[in-house]
Amino acid sequence: MNPQSASIPASDAAQDAPLARRATRVDFQTEDDKDMLRAARDLTKDLGEAKPGIYWPDMLISAGIGYGGIATAILTDNIAIAIAAGIAASLALYRALMFIHELTHIRSDALPGFRLGWNLIVGIPMLTPSFMYEGVHVIHHKRTQYGTIEDPEYLPLALMKPWSLPVFVLVALLAPLALIVRFGILVPLGLFIPPVRNFVWQRFSALSINPDFRRKAPTGKLIKRVRWQEAAASIWAIAVLLSPLVFDWRPLLTALAIFSVTAVLNQLRTLVAHLWENEGEPMTVTAQFLDSVNVPPPGRIAEVWAPVGLRYHALHHLMPSMPYHDLPEAHRRLKSELGDQSTYDGANHAGMFPLVGRIARSTMIR
């Protein structure tokens, strides 16, 4: 069944954009708003340089707080302190983990050593090395593949059954265990059983939500990255599996619980990153933008559940290579130039709960 949609012609965008984001579905063939696209280009020409002085401290401090929180939760005998430390660790590690998104868009020479440093400090310890996103996420940004069956990061969640939303979120609780199995058991098996290796690569080597997505073999520079990152993550996963033989079960179970909370938080953020109203049709750039979500200030809580620029996800789809630290200024300029009733304003939403409500209501009217 095709989704019902309301047409939002470019000439009427200023009048209808607020309605588009609050009540009606996006017209997938909405004519591109050339004024908005031109403004996005012209108003941000002086932005776009990734700054090591922001990236490195942000990532290192987040990771440090996260690992410190895990250690505190493991070592303390006070339940309240353990819970508080675990929550702090989950939030901090979530922020540190989200730099994987930046790694897929910044130029390889923009931040010397950052990809390696992030993988050693965050990606491999959390069993999410950058190869699981590199070469995958860029498909989500391709003009002709966004929202289609070829998009690894798109599901028409707003068009599915109501029970699919809680299942989509809660299945993330199993993500840490699944990653341990992938790297600690299946990767070693794949060294001796090629069909296992091929199956794992195609089905379990991408941070995707589309169950029909099959990953193609790596090419170019990614081949070398995959080899060393997968080997390092496999060694770490095996060490984690064997750790109860040296320690007791508490460190492992505590870390798994904290990582599960991080995974669920990321899944909640994913749930409201788009409106999920496309059932596989190609979309115009403006339609893709309106199907994506900004949760800009004045609210501050979005910086917790959508960190490292992800609260400006719709804007990111207009300017994928813009560093996260420049997105707030880019948003301010576009909002000021285009106004409250513009097409640009059509992708700005109030927060997580209104978005979840919109998607939930949509699943109930199918």
What key phrases describe this protein's structure?
single chain; 366 residues; mainly alpha; 17 helices; 0% strand; globular; disordered N terminus
Q: What does this entry look like structurally?
A:
InterPro entries: FA_desaturase_dom, Fatty_acid_desaturase. The chain crosses the membrane at residues 65-94, 114-133, 167-193. Keywords: Membrane, Transmembrane, Transmembrane helix. It comes from Erythrobacter insulae. This protein has 366 residues and is mostly helical. It has a domain at 28-48 and 145-366. It has helices at 13-22, 34-42, 52-75, 79-97, 99-103, 114-123, 137-140, 164-170, 175-190, 194-204, 221-242, 250-271, 285-290, 302-305, 313-318, 327-338, 352-364. It starts with 12 loop residues before the first helix and ends with a helix. The model is unreliable at 1-23 (pLDDT under 50).
User: Any low-confidence stretches, pLDDT <50, length ≥5?
Assistant: 1-23
Oligomerization state of this entry?
A: single chain
Strand content: under 5%
Mean pLDDT: 90
**Number of beta-strand segments:** 0
What is the element string, with H for helices and E for strands?
HHHHHHHHHHHHHHHHH
Distance between the termini: 9 Å
Return the structural class: mainly alpha
Give the overall form.
globular
Major sheet summary line? none
Binned, the helix content reads 40-55%
Round the Cα radius of gyration to an integer and report it: 21 Å
Please count the helical segments: 17
